[in-house]
Design goal:
Shape: elongated
Oligomer: single chain
Number of helices: 12
CATH class of the largest domain: Alpha Beta
CATH topology of the largest domain: Rossmann fold
CATH architecture of the largest domain: 3-Layer(aba) Sandwich
Structural class: alpha/beta
């Protein structure tokens, strides 16, 4: 039931207080009508006796407290979904942004979704090939997983995210279609154009749905955008049987928007001024990834977040790490040396990798990845030792490991921005070729039959 009030009492930033309201519900949508007839949208954020706190989706400037009206629509925020959304670009409020016609809705869906019943969850165990060796070979992405990318200001996380969106596919699964839902929050116009052009030039736009919120768009849109993106993904995955990859960038801007709204509500701040419910709020996004028993489709999630001052203990990456199944960390040192993608494989982690290595991929994958981790870590230690004591202090074995670390970074981690590497021929075989740098007796994490089968014979 719709109710209209002329009792707007106060406007503070993105928040508006309406007095003397009755039977108003949490998350209810509100239309604010200005004296000139303009309509702006908001949602009920809090209800206290006869007062309702409304969060504005658009700017609050120009609202006349005495002459403006607030109409409570009696429903929560929904989004119109349809298979025709593929290939289209939308704003953070769900409006068409690409100049095309409006979507003819198949149904209206609440953007807040519903949590997946833990009993109904199916375990993620299918390999998604991204075409990036440092991810596919060592920190693999699994269908139904949530695997964030931890980056920093100035690092090429946008390029990495766009490359994954273009190249990702479920290996050896032709039964279901693959789709990408891409949500960008608080990005610049240049970044938005880059993403759109990347999708269009490669043809990936045909299997993608893009949601774009620019830096000069309303801040509150950054709170609704990821929920709209995930609602779209749920529709495509669980009703249209598609494998959906959701990429959300940049989650730091989302958390900043939460902090701004929290400050406007005069809530007691938590760590570094972020609201105390930041963990809970992030989990409502991340936990919408997964697989459901009896459903062909799945949602795999790659949130991208920039760590302020490259600090892994900052609340956003810290809390994200508790919820997600690992992380891909980008290295500023590798980026300075011109290595793309600058994935720091040692602190990166995919907690589901061992469930897939050798089961959905080649039988040597797991042992090979462990050998690469071990050899690269020792090579890094040897290089650090050489800086302190000089290269002459290194043993012959240490020199080989140091050489291995250099070659590993230059031929395995480094690859072209448009280079799509196939797992077995381009990633695993490349790793075996690198291991010829080391003495055979140093390959202690590999089985003898694997060495005989895959290690290239020296000429």
């Amino acid at each position: 039931m719709q109710k209209e009030y002329k009792t707007i009492k106060e406007v503070a930033g993105p928040l508006m207080i309406v007095d003397k309201v009755r039977d108003v519900k949490y998350e209810e949508i509100v239309e604010i009508e200005l004296p000139n007839g303009e309509i702006r949208l908001g949602r009920v954020l809090e209800v206290d006796e006869e007062k309702a706190v409304v969060q504005m989706f658009e700017e609050s400037r120009g609202i006349n407290l005495k002459k403006s009206k607030a109409k409570f629509l009696g429903k929560t925020m929904t989004i119109a979904v349809s298979p025709d959304m593929l290939g289209r670009i939308f704003t953070g409020a769900g409006r068409v942004k690409d100049g095309g016609p409006d979507i003819i809705a198949e149904k209206e869906v609440d953007i807040n979704g519903a949590p997946i019943n833990p009993y109904s969850r199916d375990f993620p165990n299918d390999f998604i090939q991204t075409g990036i060796s440092s991810i596919d070979g060592m920190n693999i992405l699994v269908r139904g997983q949530k695997l964030p990318i931890f980056s920093g200001a100035g690092l090429p996380h946008s390029e990495v995210a766009a490359q994954i969106a273009r190249q990702a596919r479920v290996k050896d699964d032709s039964d279901s279609e693959f789709a990408v839902v891409f949500g960008a929050m608080g990005i610049t116009f240049e970044e938005a154009e880059y993403f759109i052009n990347q999708f269009k030039e490669t043809g990936a736009i045909e299997r993608s749905v893009l949601y774009m919120n620019l830096a000069n768009d309303p801040v509150v849109e950054r709170i609704t955008l990821p929920r709209m993106a995930l609602t779209t993904a749920e529709y495509l995955a669980f009703e249209k049987d598609m494998h959906v990859l959701v990429i959300l960038t940049d989650l730091t801007n989302y958390c900043e928007a939460l902090r701004e709204v929290s400050a406007a509500r005069k809530e007691i701040p938590g760590r570094r001024g972020y609201p105390g419910y930041l963990y809970t709020d992030l989990s409502t996004l991340y936990e919408r990834a997964g697989r459901i028993k009896g459903k062909k489709g799945s949602i795999t999630q790659i949130p991208v977040l920039t760590m302020p001052e490259d600090d892994k203990t900052h609340p956003i990456p810290d809390l994200t790490g508790y919820i997600t199944e690992g992380q891909i960390i980008l290295s500023r040192e590798l980026h300075r040396r011109g290595i793309y993608p600058p994935v720091d494989v040692l602190p990166s982690l995919s907690r589901l990798a061992q469930k897939v290595w050798g089961k959905k991929t080649r039988e040597d994958h797991g042992d090979l990845a462990n050998q690469l981790f071990s050899a690269y870590a020792r090579g890094k230690e040897a290089k650090e030792l050489a800086v302190i004591l000089g290269e002459a202090a290194l043993s012959d074995a240490d020199k080989k490991y140091s050489h291995f670390a250099d070659e590993f970074e230059n031929t395995y981690i480094r690859q072209g921005i448009a280079e799509n590497r196939e797992l077995e021929k381009d990633t695993l075989d490349r790793a075996w070729k690198l291991l010829t740098i080391l003495p055979r007796e140093e390959l202690k994490r590999l089985k003898e039959k694997q060495i005989e089968k895959y290690l290239p014979k020296s000429k």
